[in-house]
Automatic annotation (TrEMBL):
It comes from the Bacteria. It comes from Phocaeicola salanitronis (strain DSM 18170 / JCM 13657 / CCUG 60908 / BL78) (Bacteroides salanitronis). GO terms for cellular component: plasma membrane. This is Polysaccharide biosynthesis protein. PANTHER family: PSMA PROTEIN (PTHR30250:SF26), PST FAMILY PREDICTED COLANIC ACID TRANSPORTER (PTHR30250).
Amino acid sequence: MASPALRIIKNSGFLYIRIAVVTFLSLYSTRLILEALGTSDFGIYNIAGGMIAMLGFLNGAMASATQRYMSYSEGENNKEKKKVIFNISLIIHFFIALILLILFVIIGWVCFTFILNIPNDRIFAAQIVYCCLIVSTVFSVTSVPYDAVLNAHENMLYYSIVGIIDATLRLVVAVLLFRVSTDKLIVYGLLMALIPLITFSIMRIYCHRHYEECVVSLRKYFDWGKTKEMAAFAGWNFLSKAGNVIVIQGSSIVLNSFGGILINAAHGIANQLAGYLLVFSSNMQKALNPVIVKKEGEHDRHQMLAYSLAGNKFSFILFAFFAIPFCIEMPYVLQLWLKEPPEYAVLFCRLIVIRRLIGQLTSTFVTSIGATGNIKQDSIANAIIMTLALPVACLCYIQGAPIYAMYVVLIFMVCLMGIADLYFMHKQCGLSSITFFKEVLTPCVTISVFTFVTGIIYLYFMPIGILRLSCVMITCFLVCIVSTYALGMSHNEKRVINGIFSKLVSGICNRN
């Protein structure tokens, strides 16, 4: 376990450097964009982005299939099979881009004509932004096979470099908005459409130069049987992502219908903040996921389950490490970030962070079930659960429920999805529910309670401000770290951490 663990930690280190840079640039970019566009135009941009993401799950489903088969083949050490998968992926993603283009046009016409609540004088600008986002999405779709190659080779260093370039370009766009005299929303949409084209070109050139499976020969490396197998896997994954992504992004349209543009601004801020916090755990998972699939490819089910359980636990802890102090001090954090945050932003941020935190408890199970190649039943269950969220939320609003009812419904649905994933992990992978409760749920809940209780104490005897924020964050960080080592780690995990720490210390001493 030591060698893969060291590799995961090293790749996670590259990703965390990326996180530090990207998060700083993104937070500052969002502040500039909100200031340059204004609350109303910022809300319009989030509506258009939500509509695009609603259909982006089609690409996401195929991306998961590509990464699964590429990593599985890497575990099998089958070079020719990797070339076949790469070329099949190129063909499939070309057609996905074409399908999405057609669907975006149709859905856009319906939404702009009959559904969206946008002021008449901003409809044209919103339509231009929507078209720019379509172009951006098409380039993102075509980059998936290359992202899958980097993922299979666990090359998180180059992935991190591309991410930093992307975030830097977004900051440049935000700064340029203050120098524009024409419609800033239209200019913002046009410039944002160029960024995926640049990052796609960088990634494509690198992969073709460094990886032998990146050979474009559609006739030589085409396998109809493997194409049907990947398409079937993607089809069932499509159901799961359809229910999940449509609900999450469709919530923007529901909130817009019942609350208006200003509510969408608060919703957009909440999604961005939760996304920034989530990258600390999701990027660790990005380093872990190929290892899980490779272990299944090596037919080592025991190790696959061990990495999956450890992934859930540490994903939750990493997210809680930042989420708990931020939730405690959310009003002041948003004030520092945005100066004047939109109404409901504090409440929305807290609720969406809670939902994401619960989701981390079973976050690697999707990868583990997918590694077996049989995701049909789990995908159907998740699709049914999440599909109910929007109509239930609409019914709540019709009955006079408060505007945050959407978030409460989504929290409940995420809990149901976690139960479904746990059931299918038991059924298909042999995971015991008792093992999950013992190794994941119990330590995660215990660590969270200790961290939250010690952090919230400061609210009762210190005034709001930077000093209290610093005290809350430092205390929460220390309590989370200590309780994780004392209560959250198994003997084997402690042994690995102690070994890594000893190597670091000895390396420093030897240099001196």
